[in-house]
Amino acid sequence: MNPKSSYKDIFGLALESFYTHQDKTSIKVHNEDFYDDEIPVEYLFRTYQQMPELEQIALDLCKGRILDVGCCSGSHSLVLKSRELEVLPIDISPKSIKICNKRGLKEAKCLDFFELENEKFDTILLLMNGIGIAQTLDNLDFFFEKLECLMHPNGQVLLDSSDLVFLYENELDETDDYYGQMTYKISYKKSVSNAFQWLYLDFDLLKKEASKRGFLCELMFEDEHYGFLAKLKFN
């Protein structure tokens, strides 16, 4: 959750404080319709053994040249690099990229996924609800077009999301906007981001939207908390 439109480098501030001073102050996530949530900053520095099964499976499926989108502190990229795979970690947070560099990911770059050009990858990795960068259903065309531009013909996209229907306890109305389109603010200590949109998709809708744009969508894993891992390939 570090969209450019709301940019105050909240994640970068937290990563820098933890890495430099072992400051464990959490990142807070605010949504006006639900209770605040917290992201423990140390969780962003987890090892492969500390990662949930969904992430471990995704990393085990990675192959070829890999683009790690929204790499944050570089934890996923470090695992891939330790396996002697070629990986390009990118994030829009300058401070996060500096932490990646200090952790041994000299190739990490401060780049926006939607502005990346003239590159091709065998695997595009979007973890921690990576499809959220599309922000809304209306932006999915642009999102899938960008994937297509960056993928080799036999490439794959590995992404996760969550079906948020459980939050509404049968209170949904068919006339409402899609329930996975959320608006958040995030904060760290006294720094607060502007409001930004973030998209969660249920698997059936992801499969339907991907199919419209020529992608095969395969369910690779489901967890006990409405989360899932999907693989996209060209049809």
From TrEMBL:
Entry keywords, A to Z: Methyltransferase, Transferase
One GO process term, biological-process aspect: methylation
Gene3D superfamilies, sorted: Vaccinia Virus protein VP39
One Pfam family cited in the UniProt record for this chain: Methyltransf_31
SUPFAM superfamilies linked: S-adenosyl-L-methionine-dependent methyltransferases
UniProt GO MF annotations: methyltransferase activity
Segments forming domain Methyltransferase: 65-191
Name this protein carries in UniProt: Class I SAM-dependent methyltransferase
Lineage: Bacteria, Pseudomonadati, Bacteroidota, Flavobacteriia, Flavobacteriales
